[in-house]
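A protein record pairs a chain with a discrete description of its three-dimensional fold. The shape at a given residue is found from the number at the same position. Here is what such a record looks like in full:
>
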Amino acid sequence: MRKSLESFGDLYVVATPIGNLEDMTMRAGRILSIVDYIAAEDTRRTKTLLRQLGVNTRTRAYHDYNEELVSKAVISDLKGGLDVALVSDAGTPQVSDPGYHLVKQAFSAGIRVIPIPGPSALSAAISVSGVPTASFLFEGFLPSKGKKRQETLERLAREEHSVVLYEAPHRIISLLDAMSLTMGENRGLTIARELTKLHEQVCYGTLGSILAAFENDTIPCRGEFVIVVEGEKNKAPLIDIGAEHIMRELIRELPLSKAADVASRLVGQSRKSLYAFGLELKNKL
């Protein structure tokens, strides 16, 4: 697809299967076969896909660790008239995958950016969700642990829209535990595992019931997970003046969860209402 020196090439952002080769669109396969090369997050996986498609287009590595550097080289090639396809290791680029730097630089350089839509774990999970998804917030992978993750969960606990998260198998239990503590075990969610693959599993329940399903191995800790959790339906309940004063003092010295536990024992109000009040209070401080 070489063009005259007076014209730029096109950047194609191509979605590829997340597990089932039959999800590859005819258009995506055609584009991958006619571009000059493919910028791929994982060249080994992309070469496997290309072999299955009978495509011989060359690849070059483009991932989180070299994204900024390689973007400059790809932009130079595009300016030289080459057509380039951008793919992630599976699914749609930029959806919790590299692509931002290259796409932004392409627009800045006046290069045409063309989406080739297709598979995405996000859209697949939304399509089978048992919670409302007319509007939703996509957070992708949360910080793996520590204060930053807890602060993020506390923010999401107040979110009115449904929230979509990705998680790896070795962290799924700890994430659900933290979500249950922060959002309450009765918060509804859909959890999807190994979407489009042989052992695909989609379950709907509450944080409490889904955690129980992991404990009895109804849901194995294997494969990649997508979580769609419903938004907060109720505003924080009112608490009395004494409890409010105690919570104000405790959250200055203790983590929110511990402060709610201590305050509940001191004033005899529910831990859940005190925790909800604490979230609102922290947001104002």
Residues 271-284 form the longest helix (14 residues). The two ends are 58 Å apart (CA to CA). The chain has three domains: 11-119, 122-229, 241-284.
